[in-house]
Specification:
Chain lengths: 330, 728
C-alpha cells in the first residue's frame, strides 16, 4: 500500500473519529437556554414544542433548556433573566420580548412570534435595544409574512390580478412602505385606504371593494381586528372580492387564502438559529428575519363562490419557493 | 411596471395624513401575537351577542357541518342525540320528539327551535314538526344548542333550551347540487339545490322529495315534498335584506292497528313560511334588524267511527245488533237517554295555525367593556280545528328583552338579561337571568348562573275543547281545558366549568345544575264529569291542568372535544339527571278488590289532592286522585360519541354512538329499556373535472334492535347509500 493511500485512510479515519466525537465535545460546553414564554397559551406552547422538536433532531444533548412562563400577575422584575446563568434567552411572544428588551443583562436574546411592528416599535423606543440588535445580541423571527410573499401568493392564485387593496389603520400604517415596495416588485397596483382611530372603516372598505381585484388583510387594532374582520370578510364575499388573510383563522372565517407560519414552524426556525449560534457558526445573532417555514391555507368554498379553481397547497408552496430562492427575506 | 397609488391619490396619502394627526402609536397599541392570531368570533345565540363559549351565560354546544355530515343523520332530529342532556324519540317514522331532560310526549313543548331567528313552533301544542319542515340538512351551516332556560333572550318557549339553526348563506353554495339517498325502510330521497346570483342578490333554491315506509308493522309511511328559497340582497355595504320562503307538504301514515278511535289512515300536513329580515350595520360592533315572518301549519285528517253498535259490541265483547243498541240507556239517572245507531266523524290530526311575528333588535357596544342586545317583538297567533277547539282562538304577545355583557376585568364577565312578555293567556311575566363567568386563567373558566323563566301554555293547551258529537245526545268530552291562569315556572341554578388544553387540542365543558319546575302543566285523565258513558267504552277524558305537581332535577352534563387537526375529530358527552317529584296523573275508579289487594304499582295517592271524591249521589262512584312519580321521566344516564377522520385521499370515516338508560315518555310513549345505538359512515369524495361528487355508505344501529318512543317502534339495523354531485 502506498504511503499516500495510508495517509489518506488515516485522514479519513480521523475525520470519522472527529465526526463521532464532535457532538460529545460540544456537550462539554452544553449551552443553557432560557425559554421565556409570554403565557401559558396555545401559541406559546406550540412554539416551544416546535423549538424542542427541531432541537431533538440535532441530538439529545444540544442544550439545557430552562422554561419560565409568565403568569398574569408577574412583572418583569420578578423574573431574573441572568439566573440560572443562561447563555441565551429565547423570548416567545410579546410580553416575554418586552421583558427581554428591558432587561439588559448582557445575555443574547432571540425573540420569536412577535408581530413585526411591535418588534420594531421596541427597537424604536429604545436606543440600547437597537444597538444590541445591530451587535447581534438581540434579534427576532417575526410572526408576519414578508409582504412580497403575500403578494406573490395572490398573484399565483388570481392570474388576472392587477389591483390589490390594503386597509391600514393607526398601527398597521407603519407597514405601508414595505407593502408599497413589495407591490412594485410583484408588479401589482396597490391601493391603500387608511382609517384613523375615530373613523368608521366602512367608507374605506367600500372604496377598496369597488376598485380592486383582491384585498390584503393586515392586522390593525382599529381597522382590522377580529370583529371588523368578520364584517370585512362578509362584505368581500358579497362583492366577490377575495381576501388574502394573515392567519388560519382568516381562512376559516372566509378569506380565500392565507400564507402564515404556524407557531411550530417559527419554533423550528428558532431552533436552527439557536443551533447555529451556540455552535459558533455565527458568533452573533442574525438580524431580525421573517419566517422561513410557512403554510398556506385555502378556502375551497370561497373559491367556488368566485368561480376559481384552486391548486393544491403543495404546488403553491413549490411555486412560492421558486420565487424565493435566497431563503428567508430580511 | 404600473405605479402604485395611481388609482386614488387621496387614499394613498391618507396614511401619511393619519400618521401626522395621530402621532406615534404608543407601545400599548401595538399588537401582540395573541391579537394577530385571534379567532374571528362566531355568532353565538345565548345572549344574542357574539361571544366566546367561556363568556357565554349558558352552556352552548355547537354542531357544525362536519359533525352533521359525520353523524350520518338522515332525519334532522337524530343530530340532537349528540347534545348532552337531550333525548330524541321517533314517535313514528314521520313524527319526532326532541327534548332536554325528558318530560316530553309526542311533542316537546319546552324547547325553542329557531331557523335564522324564525321559530318553528306552532300553536298546536307549542310543538315542532321535525318531519314536515322545509329545511334541508345540507343547507344548515351550524346548530347552536343552549341548554337550560333561555327565555331571557328568546321568550316563552326557550324554557328548557334553545336550538338555533343557522342556514348557509346562498353565496356559499353557488352552482347545482343533486343528491340521492336510498336504503332501508324502502327509503328514497332525492334532493336538488341551485345557488345563483344577479348583481347584488344571491339566492338558493333547495328542494327534496322523500318516500319511506317507517317502522315495520307501524302505519307511518312518508311521502313528502319540500321546497325552500333563501335570497340575500346586499343593497349596499350597510343594508342587507334576507328573504326566505318555504313549503313542505306530505302524506303521512298515522293511527294504530285495531283502534277505532285512532284507526290507521293517511293524514296530510302542510307547512309554509315567508320571512323577511332587514339588517343595517351601523359600525363593526353595532347593528339593528327588523324581522317579520309568517308560519302556517296545517294538518288534514278526517275519519269516521262507527257504526256505534259495532264499536260497543267490540268494546264489551258481546254482539249487539243496531236495534238493541238503540235501546241501551246512556248517562246516569235521572238524565238517561238513548242514541240512534250512527257513524260519527272525527279528525285527530286536523288543525290549522298561523303565526305572524315582528321583531326588532339592536346590538350595541356603547363602551369598550360593555355590550348589549335589546329588542322588542309582537306576535299574533291563531289556531282553528273543529275537532280540537270551539271555533278559532287567537293570542297577541308582546315581548321586550335586553341582554348585556359587562367585563369588569379580564377575569370577570357578568351577563345580565331579562325578557318581559305579555299575552292574553297568563298576562305579564318577567324572566330574568344572571351569570358570572370567572376566568381562573386563560384556560379555565368557572360560571355561576341563575335563571327564572316562564312558559305560557299554547293556545291549544289553553283552549282545548275536543268532543265526540252525537245526533240526539249530549257531546262526549275527550279533552278539555278550562283555561290555564298560570304559566309553567322554572328556576335554574348552574355551576359551569370550561377548560381548554390547547397543546392537547382538548376542550372540556361541564355543568352541574339544579332545576325546579313548579307548577308544571300537563293533562290529567279525569272521568269525574263523565255523565254519558257508564260502560267505560270511550271513557277517557283528559283535562289540561296547570298545577299537576312540581319537579326537581339535579344533574350533571359534560362534553369533551378533541380536534387535533382539521381532519380529525372526537367528541364525547355524558349526562346524568335525577328527576324527583310527583304529578297528578288521573282521577280513577277502583274496585274494592283492587284497593284491598294493594296491587296498584306505579300509583300513589296524591298527598295534596283529596283522596276520594264522590261525584254524585246517583252515580255512587268514588274517584281517587292518583299520582305518578317523575323519577323515570328522564333518563338517569345518557351518552354519546362522535369520531371522524378525513384522509388525504378523499376518504372519510366516522362513527356515532348514542345511548340512554331506561326512561318513560309521556303521552303515547312507553317506558323503554336502556339502549345504545351505533351509526357509521364511510364516504369518498371524488373530483370530476370542475365538479365534485361524493358517495357515502351509512349504517344505523349496527347492534341489536332497540325501541324508539313506543314498544311498537322497533329500530332495526338500517343501511343507506348516498350519492351527491356538485356542479359549478
Amino acid at each position: 500500500m502506498k504511503w499516500e493511500i495510508k495517509a489518506g485512510l488515516l485522514a479519513l479515519l480521523l475525520c470519522g473519529v472527529w465526526a463521532v466525537l464532535h457532538p460529545a465535545m460540544a456537550a462539554e460546553f452544553t449551552p443553557r437556554i432560557l425559554l421565556l414564554l409570554s403565557g401559558d397559551t396555545e401559541v406559546h406552547l406550540k412554539t416551544m414544542r416546535g423549538f424542542k422538536e427541531r432541537l431533538d433532531e440535532y441530538g439529545s444533548i444540544t442544550a439545557i433548556l430552562d422554561v419560565k412562563k409568565l403568569g398574569d400577575a408577574e412583572r418583569a422584575d420578578e423574573i431574573s433573566l441572568s439566573n440560572p446563568g443562561s447563555d441565551l434567552v429565547l423570548a416567545i411572544g410579546t410580553r416575554a420580548t418586552r421583558m427581554a428588551a428591558e432587561a439588559d443583562v448582557g445575555i443574547p436574546m432571540l425573540s420569536i412570534v412577535v408581530p413585526k411592528i411591535t418588534f420594531n416599535g421596541l427597537m424604536d423606543s429604545s436606543v440600547s435595544v437597537k444597538k444590541r440588535h445591530e451587535a447581534g445580541k438581540f434579534s427576532g423571527i417575526v410572526l408576519d409574512q414578508p409582504p412580497l410573499r403575500r403578494m406573490r401568493l395572490a398573484r399565483i392564485l388570481l392570474p388576472d390580478l392587477s389591483r390589490i387593496g390594503l386597509l391600514l389603520g393607526p398601527t398597521s400604517q407603519l407597514e405601508a412602505d414595505e407593502y408599497v415596495s413589495a407591490a412594485k416588485q410583484a408588479d401589482v397596483q396597490l391601493n391603500i385606504s387608511a382609517v384613523g382611530s375615530d373613523t368608521n372603516p366602512i367608507p374605506a372598505i367600500e372604496a377598496l371593494l369597488k376598485g380592486n381585484d383582491a384585498l390584503l388583510a393586515v392586522y390593525d387594532s382599529v381597522a382590522l381586528n377580529p370583529s371588523t374582520a368578520k364584517w370585512l370578510l362578509y362584505l368581500s364575499y358579497q362583492n366577490r372580492i377575495p381576501v388574502i388573510g394573515f392567519s388560519r383563522a382568516y381562512v376559516d372565517a372566509g378569506a380565500l387564502a392565507a400564507v402564515y407560519s404556524t407557531p411550530e414552524q417559527i419554533g423550528r426556525q428558532a431552533a436552527e438559529v439557536v443551533y447555529d449560534f451556540v455552535n459558533g457558526k455565527s458568533g452573533s445573532l442574525p438580524l431580525q428575519v421573517y419566517p422561513k417555514y410557512y403554510s398556506i391555507g385555502l378556502n375551497s368554498s370561497v373559491a367556488r363562490s368566485i368561480g376559481l379553481s384552486l391548486p393544491d397547497e403543495e404546488s403553491l408552496q413549490r411555486q412560492l419557493k421558486q420565487l424565493e430562492p435566497s431563503g428567508p427575506v430580511q | 411596471m404600473k405605479m402604485s397609488c395611481q388609482l386614488n391619490l387621496f387614499v394613498c396619502f391618507a396614511p401619511v395624513l393619519v400618521f401626522l394627526t395621530m402621532g406615534e402609536p404608543s407601545a400599548a397599541e401595538l399588537p401582540t401575537e395573541v391579537d394577530v392570531l385571534a379567532e374571528i368570533p362566531m355568532v353565538s345565540s345565548a345572549a344574542r351577542l357574539p361571544q366566546r363559549p367561556e363568556d357565554s351565560p349558558a352552556t352552548v354546544t355547537v354542531i357544525d357541518r362536519d359533525m352533521i355530515r359525520m353523524s350520518g343523520a338522515i332525519n334532522l332530529a337524530d343530530i340532537f342525540r349528540l347534545i348532552p342532556g337531550f333525548q330524541v324519540g321517533h314517535v313514528t317514522g314521520n313524527k319526532f320528539s326532541v327534548t332536554s331532560h325528558g318530560l316530553a310526549d309526542e311533542i316537546s313543548r319546552r324547547l325553542l327551535v329557531l331557523v335564522d331567528g324564525r321559530s318553528l313552533h306552532t300553536a298546536f301544542n307549542s310543538g315542532v314538526d321535525w318531519a314536515n319542515t322545509p329545511l334541508e340538512i345540507e343547507d344548515i351551516e351550524r346548530i347552536e344548542v343552549i341548554s337550560g332556560p333561555n327565555v331571557a333572550s328568546y321568550g316563552a318557549n326557550a324554557f328548557n333550551g334553545v336550538v338555533y339553526i343557522t342556514t348557509r348563506q346562498p353565496f356559499q353554495d353557488q352552482g347545482t347540487y343533486i343528491g340521492m339517498t336510498g336504503g332501508s325502510q324502502d327509503t328514497g330521497i332525492g334532493k336538488f339545490r341551485y345557488g345563483g346570483r344577479t348583481s347584488n342578490f344571491d339566492y338558493r333554491v333547495s328542494g327534496s322529495y322523500r318516500e319511506d315506509d317507517g317502522f315495520d308493522d307501524v302505519n307511518d309511511d312518508t311521502e313528502q315534498a319540500r321546497l325552500s328559497f333563501r335570497g340575500i340582497y346586499q343593497k349596499d355595504l350597510r343594508d342587507q335584506w334576507d328573504i326566505q320562503l318555504g313549503l313542505a307538504r306530505g302524506d303521512y301514515g298515522i293511527g294504530l292497528p285495531n283502534d277505532r278511535f285512532t284507526p290507521e289512515r293517511t293524514g296530510e300536513r302542510t307547512s309554509h313560511h315567508e320571512y323577511l329580515r332587514w339588517t343595517r350595520t351601523l359600525n363593526p360592533t353595532d347593528s339593528v334588524y327588523v324581522q317579520f315572518y309568517h308560519n302556517r301549519y296545517r294538518m288534514d285528517d278526517d275519519f269516521t267511527i262507527g257504526p256505534l253498535s259495532e264499536v260497543v259490541s267490540e268494546e264489551l265483547g258481546v254482539p249487539i245488533s243496531p236495534e238493541v243498541f238503540e235501546t241501551i240507556p246512556w248517562g246516569f239517572p235521572p238524565n238517561q237517554f238513548t242514541l240512534e245507531d250512527q257513524t260519527i266523524r272525527y279528525g285527530l290530526d286536523d288543525i290549522e295555525t298561523d303565526r305572524y311575528d315582528l321583531e326588532f333588535q339592536h346590538v350595541l357596544q356603547p363602551i369598550d367593556d360593555f355590550r348589549m342586545a335589546w329588542g322588542a317583538g309582537l306576535r299574533y297567533e291563531t289556531i282553528e280545528g273543529e275537532y280540537w277547539l270551539d271555533g278559532e282562538e287567537e293570542d297577541l304577545v308582546l315581548r321586550l328583552y335586553a341582554n348585556g355583557e359587562k367585563r369588569f376585568t379580564d377575569r370577570l364577565v357578568l351577563n345580565l338579561g331579562a325578557n318581559l312578555e305579555d299575552n292574553n293567556i297568563v298576562g305579564t311575566e318577567i324572566s330574568p337571568r344572571v351569570a358570572f363567568n370567572y376566568h381562573i386563567s386563560d384556560r379555565h373558566t368557572l360560571r355561576l348562573g341563575a335563571a327564572r323563566a316562564y312558559r305560557t301554555p299554547s293556545l291549544l293547551e289553553n283552549h282545548w275543547s275536543s268532543y265526540f258529537d252525537f245526533d240526539g245526545g249530549p257531546p262526549l268530552a275527550r279533552h278539555i281545558s278550562y283555561g290555564l291562569d298560570d304559566p309553567e315556572e322554572i328556576t335554574s341554578y348552574e355551576i359551569g366549568y370550561i377548560a381548554k388544553w390547547p397543546e392537547q387540542a382538548l376542550t372540556l365543558d361541564m355543568k352541574l345544575y339544579r332545576e325546579r319546575i313548579d307548577p308544571i302543566i300537563n293533562n290529567v285523565d279525569d272521568k269525574r264529569d263523565l255523565t254519558l258513558d257508564p260502560y267505560d267504552i270511550a271513557s277517557w277524558v283528559q283535562i289540561q291542568n296547570n298545577d299537576v305537581g312540581s319537579i326537581d332535577i339535579d344533574g350533571f352534563e359534560a362534553r369533551l372535544v378533541y380536534r387535533p387537526r382539521q381532519s380529525a375529530f372526537l367528541m364525547l358527552t355524558y349526562s346524568y339527571a335525577n328527576p324527583e317529584g310527583i304529578f297528578l296523573d288521573e282521577y280513577s275508579v277502583f274496585t274494592q278488590q283492587e284497593l284491598d289487594s294493594g296491587g296498584l304499582e306505579f300509583l300513589t295517592f296524591c298527598p295534596a289532592a283529596p283522596d276520594i271524591i264522590v261525584v254524585s249521589p246517583e252515580e255512587q262512584r268514588e274517584y281517587y286522585a292518583t299520582c305518578r312519580t317523575f323519577s323515570d321521566r328522564a333518563p338517569e344516564h345518557s351518552y354519546s360519541l362522535l369520531a371522524g377522520y378525513r384522509f388525504a385521499s378523499g376518504w372519510e370515516s366516522s362513527v356515532s354512538v348514542s345511548g340512554t338508560s331506561a326512561f318513560n315518555w309521556f303521552g303515547d310513549g312507553d317506558n323503554l329499556p336502556s339502549h345504545t345505538r351505533v351509526d357509521v359512515r364511510l364516504a369518498k369524495q371524488l373530483k370530476l373535472g370542475s365538479s365534485t361528487a361524493h358517495v357515502a355508505l351509512i349504517g344505523q344501529n349496527l347492534g341489536g334492535d332497540y325501541l324508539e318512543f313506543r314498544d311498537d317502534n322497533v329500530f332495526e339495523t338500517r343501511a343507506y347509500l348516498q350519492f351527491g354531485l356538485s356542479l359549478p
